[in-house]
What does this fold into?
Amino acid sequence: MSDILFKLMAVSGKVPISGNNPPTAISLNPTSSTSLSPTYSVTATASGGTADARFIRLGTSGGYSNNGAAFTVSRGTTATFQAYNSLNSVAGTIYSQSFSIPYLGSEYADSSLTASSQTVASTVGSGTISFTDGNVSNYYQLVRNTSNSWPLATSTISTADNTTPYQATAATGGMTNPSFTGLSEGNGLWPAAGDTYYYRLRIRLRGDYGGQGTQADNIWASPTISVARASAPATDVTPNALNWGNILTGNSSANTNSQTVTGINTAITLRVDFDEDRDNYTLQANVNGTLVGNAVSSPGNFSFSVSNNDVVYFRAVGGETRDSTADVTNTSDGGATIDSFGVELED
It folds into this structure.
């Protein structure tokens, strides 16, 4: 850490008032301050020369105070003090001395924060990253990186350019537990399925706490965390075995038994092809208690869509038919055979 020292910059402005000797030096106490403030108080004391009293001021105009008076100095400025000696109530030559009042450096930013990495499901396309154990004196900026290879903290990092490996959220300050919301795959701040992004905080001491408050003061805070998003599961269009029983009835209408579709993770299309042995009849699918589409006359075919956990049965209505057959195939799986069932009705 570089010491914060007042630096003598120049001695100027010796304006003769009368013939007695001017002061030869001005000292400040304290010579530096680590208080987290944009200003702080010093006492200014002139010395040297012939005098029975000394007077001092901050600036080059206005009234003087007794030697050793307190003044408020502002960081990032040059503070010029002026003093003169008084001998036998006669004011002497003015002596000027200037001091550089520097900002507090980045070492005064609180860089030890706490956060946890996350592992999320493939369906989680947005999220929030929160940190704890920060300090209200900090100014925070969350930066995401795709490779865990970081530039200098003082670098210019685009908040919009997706062609670079870095992006940042809008910076924020004045809090001990900074939380960044609105991170999404859509704005490039959240990983796509199967990807991992890395995140760090850039911080600096805020200007109202004595820092310069510019990009040049940025430092990386710890820790580096990651968000790992799981890969999307492979599409599974092959259901577990389904077995609809034959329709055998002495009536003119009847249903198969119900079967629950399982083992798929996307909607699939089933096709039903059925023939006619004697009289015409109609066949129709029922999904989750609702008949699908219009009843189709024999011989014929129809298709319908099902999803995992759908409950399906078939309803036949019509005249006498013997030894008719309905074949169910999976269009989404290359026409693979799902099941076959017979249809026998009587008038």
In short: The longest strand covers residues 77-87. Confidence is low (pLDDT under 50) at residues 1-18, 160-164. The chain has three domains: 7-102, 107-229, 247-345. DSSP finds no helices and 29 strands in the chain.
